[in-house]
Specification:
Layout (H helix, E strand, L loop, with lengths): L1 E5 L3 H12 L3 E6 L15 E2 L12 H7 L8 E3 L3 H14 L2 H28 L6 E9 L2 H6 L1 H10 L4 E3 L1 H7 L11 E11 L1 H14 L3 E4 L1 E7 L4 E7 L7 E5 L1 E4 L5 H5 L9 E11 L14 E4 L4 E6 L2 E10 L8 H14 L10 E9 L6 E4 L5 E5 L5 H16 L18
Length: 423
């Protein structure tokens, strides 16, 4: 089949590879100049299936509402409350315990499958990208541990490998942790870790090209027409040439938060909201008298939902969920919180003067799992809505999508990945 893939973030790049590996003629359209330049660009790169959890969880209603009243919290509101109200209503409903447990089971199954596929590709293709091993969730107080009790129970029920650590045990695994920071307990996932998402995306793109996939960068898709064939109309940025329409047997939409605008004209509704996240990337400070500065692997501050990861000789700190707002407008309080959390846990570990800031849109669906499969419009397929877990779910989602297009049974349960759950 001749298949168009629209979008070349980590999800689009991995989708292009899997389709090309199955022998399809793949053409990728990406409006930016390269792969992984938007949501996939500067995340912490955490891959920890045991902690791939829906944002819509019991307790998140109050957390989200508290974001209206505080400058220091995991959730912020950047404006436009009326425009996001329908999405928030669906989100609040998805926070119910029964709904959360179904979404959690789906996300963790897909995350495990995706981690296995990532390891397979890394080994088979001899991919080289920055990686660290081990993921630790830091609990500042007994109250934080009590709040995590439900997650621990679910991890035990699902058989997810993890250990609950005392503070001294946590500091053995992460000797750079501040000896005076308030640490009540930690949850350690030995099978988790981080990987440089952007480096992986560039390499998987090269392997897709070696299999015949074409990548067209600086190419904006303006319209779709469902049917047999599917028609894709695109134009090249900065060019005076007229828009071009091409025919395909199928098209896969991997455009994340921009998908609703593209899909609405063909009658496909997807409740995706751009929820903005922030990251700060700083060089690791080197001191002969303190060789353990900074994280060895990656940690997450459970109270503030901030990740701190080691990427080679750099530290990346990421977090914040900003609902509404604008992609180019940085909130200084959000950036300050990232710096504060880094200093709490790894004081003096980073060369702050050389910091780089980033803000990107996480394409969030109200309940958590992505949509992977047919759209309902003839010839149009979807692989989108991965939220903050795009890198963790990308390789598994891409393999699932390729199997579905081939009319093969995927190697993982996909009962909650269909678009019909929002109708």
């Amino acid at each position: 089949m001749r298949i168009a893939v629209i979008g070349a973030g980590i999800v689009g790049a991995t989708t292009a590879y899997e389709l090309a590996a199955d022998g399809h003629a793949v053409v990728v359209f990406e409006r930016r100049a390269s792969v992984a330049t938007e949501s996939s660009f500067a995340n912490t790169g955490v891959i920890a299936p045991g902690y791939a959890v829906p944002w819509a969880a019991p307790g998140m209603r109050s957390t989200a509402l508290a974001g209206l009243l505080t400058r220091r919290g995991a959730v912020r509101f950047g404006g436009g409350a009326l425009s996001v109200a329908p999405w928030l209503w669906r989100f609040f409903r998805a926070c119910a315990k029964a709904e959360y447990e179904l979404s959690l089971a789906q996300m963790q199954a897909l995350a495990r499958y995706s981690q296995d596929r990532t390891h397979e590709l890394t080994s088979a293709l001899k991919l080289q990208y920055e990686q660290t091993y081990g993921y630790m969730v830091l609990l500042r107080s007994a109250r934080d541990l009590a709040r995590a009790s439900g997650s621990l129970a679910m991890l035990n029920h699902a058989g997810q490998a993890h250990r609950l650590l005392a503070p001294a045990e946590a500091r053995v695994l992460e000797p750079g942790l501040s000896p005076v920071a308030p640490l009540h307990a930690a949850i350690h996932f030995a099978e988790g870790g981080t990987g440089n998402c952007r480096q992986f995306a560039h390499q998987i793109k090269s392997h897709a090209q070696a299999l015949g996939a074409e990548f067209h960068f600086g190419c904006q898709v303006q319209a779709l027409k469902a049917g047999a064939p599917v028609e894709v109309t695109s134009s090249v940025a900065g060019s005076s040439a007229a828009a071009q329409t091409q025919s395909f047997d199928a098209a896969v939409i991997c455009t994340g938060a921009r998908a609703p605008k593209l899909l609405h004209p063909i009658g496909v509704q997807v409740p995706i909201l751009p929820v903005y996240g922030y990251s700060v990337t700083v060089p690791l400070r080197h001191r002969d008298d303190s060789p353990d500065l900074g994280p060895q692997g990656s940690v997450m501050d459970e109270r503030y939902k901030v990740d701190i990861a080691r990427l080679g000789q750099r530290i990346r700190v990421a977090g914040i969920a900003e609902i509404g707002g604008h992609p180019s407008r940085f909130n200084n309080d959000s950036l300050r919180q990232l710096y504060d959390v880094l200093e709490d846990w790894f004081p003096g570990a980073a060369e702050i003067a050389k910091a780089q800031h980033w803000k990107g849109a996480r394409p969030m669906l109200p309940d958590g799992p992505p949509i992977v499969g047919p759209s309902g419009a003839k010839g149009i397929w979807l692989n989108l809505g991965h939220g903050a877990s795009g890198w963790a779910l990308s390789n598994g989602s891409a393999r699932v999508l390729a199997d579905l297009i081939q009319n093969r049974a995927p190697g993982v349960d996909i009962s909650r990945l269909h678009i019909g759950r929002f109708r």
